[in-house]
Amino acid sequence: MSTILECHDLTKKFGSKVAVSAINLKLERGQIIGLLGPNGSGKSTIMKLANELLTPTSGSILIGGMKPGIETKKIVSYLPEKTYLNDWMRVHQIIELFSDFYADFKPEKAYDMLKSLNINPDDKLKTMSKGTKEKVQLILVMSREAELYLLDEPIGGVDPAARDYILQTILHNYNENATVIISTHLISDIENILDFVVFINQGQVVLTSSVDDIRDEKGKSVDVLFREVFKC
Amino acid sequence: MPWELKSDRPIYTQLIEQIELLIFSGVYPLGSKLPSVRDMAQEAAVNPNTMQRALVKLEEDGLIITHRTSGRSITEDARMVEIAKTKLAQKQISEFLEKMQLMGFEQTEILTIIDNMVKEMKK
């Protein structure tokens, strides 16, 4: 297995506030990885650093051995925490936009998924509910054949039935060489599809382990362990 | 078919147990072809790597055979299945006996209770 994402003493400060503090991390390809931590622990900051939306204060982050930039964006499919799509656009127009932007985008995949979720490609984003908008975004992200998917809170705003479909979609669309990193605090919902988890708290990695090792060694679920580690 | 996964034990061991049950109960008949890892993983809503791990273990135990070109199938050897089945039964019964001992029952008492219950069921 080769490394898809690595951090060396990665640090990000906002003024005097330290969001990410000297993180060292190596994640291997071909896994579904949970980036788990309470609110404000630095999950989204790490995702943004990986996408060059932020630059490190010190240290480095590498995607497939490269610094985040044009080349890494070709292989990374990113679902940000906030929508960035224009809401006057219709879904099929956004699909055309994505086809132009990304060589690895598969429109037929997107249309398939829209159909399964009963979303009309002629609808404008503006007329959609918050949950439906989130579904559209995730569909766009998962319709790329990327090497690394970075999903920042992909299931937060959708109903449990759609949540199941979304998890199925993630399982179905990622191939053996691709890696999926999901940040969330809704652990029990995604625990069964994860290979590996990274717990972060106050900008630091507090635990990295495979899910089955946690269950083997501690006899408890990741969800229960999380509640213990992050007990308020 | 429902895949019930508990949260306090490794997922792959639970997958192994459930697939064994599917074989013992004949849902997957001897010699039949198994769905692909990906399809099975999706049906159970688990990671394909985890499903793969479970299938490799079942292969080691001789219940599943991997063909180089055409995926996996259930063994045609009924004896292998009988052995695995007996093993599972022994495991369940020893767990049961341990619990009964904790409750303070003697062996003969346990046998009497079982005997009576079996008779009840026959009626």
**Main CATH class of the largest domain in chain B:** Mainly Alpha
Strand content of chain A: 25-35%
Mean pLDDT of chain B: 89
CATH superfamily of chain A: P-loop containing nucleotide triphosphate hydrolases
N-to-C SSE string of chain B, H for helix and E for strand: HHHEEHH
Please name the CATH architecture of the largest domain in chain B: Orthogonal Bundle
The SSE string of chain A, one letter per element, is EEEHEHEHHHEHEHEEHH
- Structural class by helix and strand composition of chain A: alpha/beta
Q: How much of the polypeptide of chain B forms β-strand, as a percent range?
A: 5-15%
Low-confidence stretches of chain A: none
Rough outline of chain A: globular
What summary fits the major beta sheet of chain A? 6 strands, mixed
Oligomerization state of this entry? heterodimer
Radius of gyration of chain A over all CA atoms, rounded? 17 Å
Any idea what the CATH superfamily of the largest domain in chain B is called?
Winged helix-like DNA-binding domain superfamily/Winged helix DNA-binding domain
CATH class assignment of chain A: Alpha Beta
Q: What percent of residues of chain A adopt helix (DSSP H or I)?
A: 25-40%
Amino-to-carboxy terminus distance of chain A: 37 Å
Structural domains of chain B: how many: 2
The neighbouring-strand order within the major sheet of chain A is: 5-6-7-3-8-9
CATH topology of chain A: Rossmann fold
